[in-house]
Design goal:
This protein is of the alpha/beta class. The protein has a single domain (29-372), classed as 3-Layer(aba) Sandwich (Alkaline Phosphatase, subunit A). Helices cover 27% and strands 18% of the residues. The chain contains twelve helices and 13 strands. It has helices at 5-16, 20-23, 56-64, 78-87, 91-94, 110-116, 179-193, 243-250, 257-286, 319-322, 349-356, 440-456, and strands at 31-38, 66-72, 120-125, 142-144, 199-208, 293-299, 323-324, 326-329, 338-345, 384-389, 395-400, 404-411, 414-422. Strands 1, 2, 3, 4, 5, 6, 7, 8 and 9 form a nine-stranded mixed sheet that branches. A four-stranded antiparallel sheet has the order 10-11-12-13, covered by helices on one side. Strand 10 and strand 11 form a beta hairpin. Helix 7 runs parallel beside helix 9 (257-286). The longest helix has 30 residues, at 257-286. The radius of gyration is 22 Å and the shape is globular. It starts with a helix and ends in a 15-residue tail after the last helix. The relative contact order is 0.18. Residues 1-26 have low confidence and may be disordered. It binds calcium ion.
Length: 471
């Protein structure tokens, strides 16, 4: 519900005391519906140009909003990436470098900040954080993690296919008993119960991360024989540190057709998630909340999805893992079926949400409010940084420019291997130009940018934890 000007004038005095956003002369506080999935390759969406996967609801959301063609997560691993999204800060700043690290209760999360501004906050689905009294559940009033834990029936042969050492196959459960459906039902309940308050709902699907187990009919929606593998499917850089581990973690894939079969299930799970997102958005429409709700869709990182023959994520800087889908739909600023080509980061989401809601952006947030992004002007940013691991130990840092990318692998803090890709001529990252003298100058620009970023960015010790976090 949007209040028109005359209503605001008529009730201006009483409204003014209700919220910061209203006191600034804008309308009532917007709700936030933040929908995310896990390990969603940005190429696996219709609205990102894929003609084989079916994502009608996300396509519709993109058509009402804005989609970012070049959005990058700050770490291609669950916990650090999610915590960067929650805090608007890089992993090296929060100290949550990897899935084995805890979180610093002194950090301000999205839920802490919105709760302080009078919002009711919920996280439903995979949050992957340590939730306890010390960190006050990171500011969330409601924490629900529905999970069916069902094993697939007739999975693909495990000795051949086991992305992330998990199974791939059809779930025995229908959608309403599947994790996807359970999260959707709880999300719909949350929205209906809180329709009269400003709320933040973090709705987080654990798929299409492994195990890749869609329900019927989505498990049977795609004919593996008709699916196209990515153009870089056969391109492997055997010199990448950990490349063997990456492939071992994916499965043997001795039979090439296994890639198509896995892709059919992966697309199936993407389509099942899309169906559920459609149900949640329908509920927003039914309750008349759509106009006053900021809707975001993104993922914590990508999935190799058979690019470079791998099925996982991990220690690489490839687009498949660091690039993420990102769609925002709200108001005039984020509408009109627009495609934005500028480099944006997962850490930009929190300051953008705060800005849209009239809440002050804390000074230590490292992302930028996308309200300041003027497409086509050179005022935004030249590089996006992603990092997995600690820079003093084993790590991979990706420096993504607008048309090229530098990837630095370190061991013991020392350079172990480098990649450089000219994304204009080689968007699928098949030719490493790091040793090509013609690119020396350009490569040095990227190294200088990395050096400057490392100097400027706050660095914390890794947060140790004894509490086990499942992947
Ligand atoms: Ca993840």
């Amino acid at each position: 519900m949007i209040l028109n000007k005359s209503l605001l004038l008529a009730f201006g005095c009483s409204l003014a005391v209700h919220s910061q956003a209203e006191s600034k002369g804008s309308v009532q506080k917007p709700n936030v519906l933040f929908i995310m999935s896990d390990q969603h390759n940005a190429n696996a969406l219709g609205c990102y140009g894929n003609q084989e996967v079916s994502t009608p609801n996300l396509d519709k959301l993109a058509a009402k909003g804005v989609r970012f063609q070049n959005a990058f997560c700050q770490t291609a691993q669950c916990v650090p990436s999610r915590y960067s999204i929650w805090t608007g800060r890089h992993a090296r700043s929060t100290g949550t470098y990897g899935n084995g690290n805890g979180q610093n209760p002194a950090e301000n999360t999205v839920a802490d900040l919105f709760k302080k501004a009078g919002y009711y906050t919920g996280t439903i689905g995979k949050h992957h954080m340590i939730m306890n009294a010390t960190n006050q559940n990171h500011g969330f009033d409601v924490v629900l993690v529905p999970n069916d834990r069902a094993k697939p029936v007739n999975p693909l042969p495990y000795d051949e296919v086991h992305p992330g050492r998990s199974e791939v196959g059809e779930s025995p459960l229908p959608n309403d008993q599947h994790t996807c459906g359970l999260i959707t039902q709880e999300s719909i309940k949350f929205i209906a119960a809180n329709k009269d308050k400003p709320f933040v709902l973090w709705c987080s699907f654990p798929g299409p991360h492994t195990p890749i187990t869609p329900s019927a009919p989505w498990s049977r929606q795609y004919d593996p024989k008709k699916l196209t593998l990515p153009p870089n499917h056969l391109s492997i850089d055997t010199l990448i540190p950990g490349n063997r581990g990456l492939l071992t973690k994916s499965g043997k894939f001795a039979n090439d057709f296994s890639h198509n079969q896995t892709l059919a299930y992966y697309y199936g799970l993407v389509s099942q998630i899309d169906y559920n997102i459609g149900m949640i958005l329908n509920e927003l429409d039914r309750l008349g909340l759509r106009e006053n709700t900021i809707v975001v869709y993104t993922a914590d990182h990508g999935e190799m999805m058979s690019e470079h023959r791998a099925w996982t994520k991990g220690m690489t800087g490839y687009e498949a893992t660091v690039r993420v889908p990102m769609i925002i739909s709200y108001g005039k600023q984020f509408s009109g079926d627009r495609k934005i080509e500028e480099l944006v980061c997962s850490i930009d989401l929190l300051p953008t949400l705060l800005d849209l809601s009239g809440i002050e952006i804390p000074a230590n947030i490292e992302g930028k409010s996308m309200l300041k992004l003027k497409p086509g002007t050179a005022t935004w940013r030249d590089y996006a940084f992603s990092e997995l691991g600690s820079s003093t130990q084993t790590s991979v840092i990706t420096v993504r420019g607008n048309a090229a990318k530098y990837v630095l692998f370190r061991r013991g803090g020392q350079v172990e291997y480098e990649q450089f890709f000219d994304l204009k001529t080689d968007p699928w990252e098949t030719t490493n130009l790091a040793k090509d003298a013609r690119y020396d100058k350009k490569l040095n620009d990227f190294k200088s940018a990395l050096n400057a970023w490392e100097k400027a960015t706050e660095t914390s010790e890794p947060i140790r934890t004894k509490e086990k976090v499942e992947e």
